[in-house]
Amino acid sequence: MFIRSLLTVSLLAQLSGTALAADATPLTDQQAARIMTETSTERPLEVTKVTDPTEGVEDPFDPLAVDNTSKPLEPLDQQDIQDIGQGFSNSVPTEQGLDKIENTEATHTSTPPVAASWDLKGLNSAKWYDNIGRGQFPIYARAHVLLNNAHASPGAIDGTSGKNTQKAILTFQTIHGLERTGTLDKATWDALVAKHPEDAYMEYTITAQDVKGPFLPSIPSNYAEQAKLPGLYYTSVSEALAEKFHMDEGFLKKLNPKAKFKVGEKLIVANVKNELPENIHYIVAHKGVKQLYLFNSGWKMIGSFPASIGSTETPSPTGKYRITGVAKNPPYSYSPSNFVQGGNLKPLTLPPGPNGPVGNIWIALSKKSFGIHGTPNPSMISKSYSHGCIRLTNWDANDLGRKVKAGVEVMFIE
Known about the structure:
The chain is α+β, with helices and mostly antiparallel strands.
């Protein structure tokens, strides 16, 4: 059974079973043949351009409604569920496991050997020290960029410890065969710096293109008001630049407290890279951990993103589906038959833009109206819920959209 091929991966963790293992157990001939058969049907993903302004992507309120055209490729049966509960789900971070790591960090008193500095030199020369503890420190700021560039996304870079940081560290440790602690220990730090010796931060000069816009003074919360706008654009230069460099907007301003965000100004920004590996064959959306895991054809983990995945009221689907297409910068179709927002009882079409309900990209799944998409609130990823879909930061969703192929399987697990 497909799900059991996943469980052949060596997935036992060292810390309360809280992480995925790095290396796959050799596949049997039968398993290898199946993978070759499945992956041979993959093809380069053709970008789907949404040209009709009345046809946008739609986020359903009831993702569990029966739809004969969009059943799971292979529904998970009771044995699947039992296997997942005993194997895979115990191998990735759990909320309890992450809480344990976070509580351990909180008991540490951070005493940096050198006074912390938030200037360019201080950020790029931040050194590891014992008992870093919980908080916002230059060492976490440097680590966030290195993790991002190692395909272990921490979400919005903000220099702060927390669950997204822990999950990114666990992914990096898993990929590189390190002890899976979920903490920024010395072995992990040394591996990060060795594999990514480039400066984590750089000086960037604001260009005329950066300030060109268009921008909006604000985004109204009511969909009816949003539908009247020409586009759901960024609201400021700082917001646009923060997304460009994968940063929390408040953190960008913290590093550049005197910035007016005018042409010619020099800023300290994250030196981020945006290239995922080409060999993405399987995607696992883990609802409990709020994380999207990427695997190659041998079921070796090659990356992860923090994600908002469904909620108790609007859960994500179960089972397995396939990637079917990508819409860049799509409009959004609101239907009150799915859910009612702002008292709006008539269908609405919201214009495209990074501040739209699905951000500026939609990766469609083989279940109608479900997909992987961006967000207007990157700093809330994995700290909030979605209406059943998989919500990533705009930059992570675009990174995935550039590399994923049609036919790649997406599996939802609890």
